[in-house]
Amino acid sequence: VKISKLGEFGLIERLARIVQPSDADDVIVGIGDDAAVWHSGDRFVIATTDTMADGVHFLSKNADWHAIGWKAFATNASDIAAMGGRPEYALVTLCLPPDTDVANLDALYEGLRECADACAARVVGGDIVRSPVMTITVAVFGRAGEQHGEPLLLRRNSARVGNRIAVTGTLGDSAGGLRKLQEADESHPLVTRHLRPEPRIAHGTAAAGAGVRCGIDVSDGLLQDVGHVCEASGVGALVRADDIPLSNDLRAAFPDDVLELACTGGEDYELILVGDVELLARLDPPVTIIGEIVGDPERRVRLLDAAGNEINYERQGWDAFR
Amino acid sequence: VKISKLGEFGLIERLARIVQPSDADDVIVGIGDDAAVWHSGDRFVIATTDTMADGVHFLSKNADWHAIGWKAFATNASDIAAMGGRPEYALVTLCLPPDTDVANLDALYEGLRECADACAARVVGGDIVRSPVMTITVAVFGRAGEQHGEPLLLRRNSARVGNRIAVTGTLGDSAGGLRKLQEADESHPLVTRHLRPEPRIAHGTAAAGAGVRCGIDVSDGLLQDVGHVCEASGVGALVRADDIPLSNDLRAAFPDDVLELACTGGEDYELILVGDVELLARLDPPVTIIGEIVGDPERRVRLLDAAGNEINYERQGWDAFR
After folding, report:
1. Hey, is the C-beta of B126 within 8 angstroms of any chain A C-beta?
2. pLDDT of residue A33
3. For A313-317, B128-132, B139-143, which range has the lowest pLDDT when averaged over its residues?
């Protein structure tokens, strides 16, 4: 069986079964959330890793190396933020063809460091190997807040019927920025949203500290990422199209596709937070409530227009192998 | 400037300068040792990462996937052992072409888990992305022993003039095993030493606990790895060819090249331990003393035969880009 048949999520589930330990002990969150969490002495460690490959996540022939470095760190920091934690340390692995120009790597590392600095984290090690194709893998370690000896975490599996669904920032800007890049409109303001996503660490730690227990970041696409929450929590979701926060830049640039970009575009690295309406309404920085969790044995995510009719998109988001 | 000009170690030094923090605070070991070490609450965390790429570290067309999984974990666990610590948790990142057969990945993960089990560690997360070339990156987190609030570490920079140089196990077997594989003699006993190296965790923790302060693992090749110690410590080294421990299998298989394989072959994942002769002689499991640290502003590693004459090999070990 080829992995393109299984898809990314089927493959992760299958491989997780091979390595998943039967006993729980110090592992609090294993495979299947934004990051892993374990208990280490008097702390709760959060760890995650993300890879970018030439030809898939960037094109080395025409690359903004500083931006690639920023994004390689930011996607990991976003996973830590999506668990409610703060990033602290990073390892960076480069797979490089021997004819790689070192000036490009200087810029890549400057971008990495700039994003790490913005997150109050730092690069402490890594590995560099030869490879026919360039890839950049970053692993980030952080920590969760805690209360009475328990970690304050945002889990995918903690959505409950009656919870509201909220998001930080505006959605679809990254996908809009990618389109603008593809149209060679490189100075368009949306492009920055695609190239330099800002991990929502303050939002995540505030939510976890306030008592919110469920969250995920928007990497694959809003509907698909809400779907990951529904899958893990055994619930369904209603998302109200009119309540999804959209930037004026995106509305102006893509008036006809703005909703589809916001719902399926992905790579926004905003946070989806799920919890009691009173908790979400009080959060600082503020968030936008876009829907609610409902009972649904089929764990569907339904997008509704103002009249309550369901909107369907053929593509709900990103799968690495489909 | 192409990175093939700088070489692996010049490149690491250059990139480290970009991300190296100016202040020390919680980072105890940064870029430039086998692993990074930082202080986290009441523990000392050791973290490392290693990558294997198709076409460089293995050939997917003709691969023993179980062995690749074992080795991907073992090389990382060896880096933790070389710092004197114990591995605890791992993240696994796979870059995969979409036509990858899932049965191969099952075997890869079984090998990973088997080596993790042997090290009392476990896989808790990771990332899977699409890529034109397959790579496997493992990041392993462990902990150092400690005494009076200080970590017990084996550092590259802690060799002192008058120290002895010792090694665990026998050297050159991995390089011999690789040759046997290339000769299609797959059932030769040396092949296992190449495909399934055993991280020397017990040796490393015993040495660190006994007061040894300097170590590194044999990944690039004995002479080159002793060279890394000399470089970091500002010393020179004498290695006595007749004292290097060699297996009977290797002597029998390659009687003419046995010394060169042992000195430059690499990938043995044995430990080099440097310290006072009394400390090294008392270690359990035992080690073999092969040389000593000398004053040398040029930081040379000299290999001497029984008559005291220097032996020179053109190639001292592995550089990813040369």
Report:
1. yes
2. 87
3. A313-317
| Residue A217, pLDDT above cutoff 80 | yes
Q: Tell me the shortest Cα–Cα distance from B120 to chain A, in angstroms.
A: 11
pLDDT at A22: 57
In this complex, do B93 and A57 lie within 8 Å of one another by their Cβ atoms? no
- For the ranges B4-8, B47-51, B82-86, B266-270, the lowest mean pLDDT is seen at B4-8
For strand A135-143 and strand A43-53, is the pairing parallel, antiparallel, or unpaired? Answer: antiparallel
Query: Are the Cβ atoms of A41 and B41 closer than 8 angstroms?
Result: yes
Q: What is the dihedral of CA A154, A157, A163, A168, to 10 degrees?
A: 40
Q: Name chain A contacts of B14, Cβ cutoff 8 Å.
A: 102, 105-106
Q: Mapping DSSP to helix (H, G, I), strand (E, B) and coil, where does residue A133 land?
A: coil
pLDDT at position B106 over 60: yes
B residues 55-114 lying closer than 8 A (beta carbon) to A: 55-57, 88-89, 91-93, 95-96, 98-103, 105-106, 109-110, 112-113
CA dist., res. A309 & res. B240, Å (int): 81
Q: Is the pLDDT of residue B135 over 90?
A: yes
State whether residue B42 sits within 8 Å of chain A by CB. Answer: yes
Contact between A123 and B19 using a beta-carbon 8 Å cutoff: yes
Dump pLDDT digits (tens) for A55-71. 999 998 888 999 999 99
Q: Which amino acid is present at A142?
A: G
Alpha-carbon Rg for chain A in angstroms: 19
Residue A316 pLDDT greater than 90, yes or no:
no
Contact A14 B110 (CB under 8 A): no
pLDDT digits (tens, 9 = 90+) for A233-277: 999 999 999 999 999 999 999 999 999 999 999 999 999 999 999
Give the pTM.
0.92
* Residue A115 exposed, middle or buried by CB count within 10 Å (0-12, 13-18, 19+): buried
Q: Report the candidate in A155, A293, A126 with the shortest Cα–Cα distance to residue B18.
A: A126
Would you call A219 an interface residue with chain B, using a CB distance cutoff of 8 Å?
A: no
From CA B267, how far away is CA A268, in angstroms rounded? 42
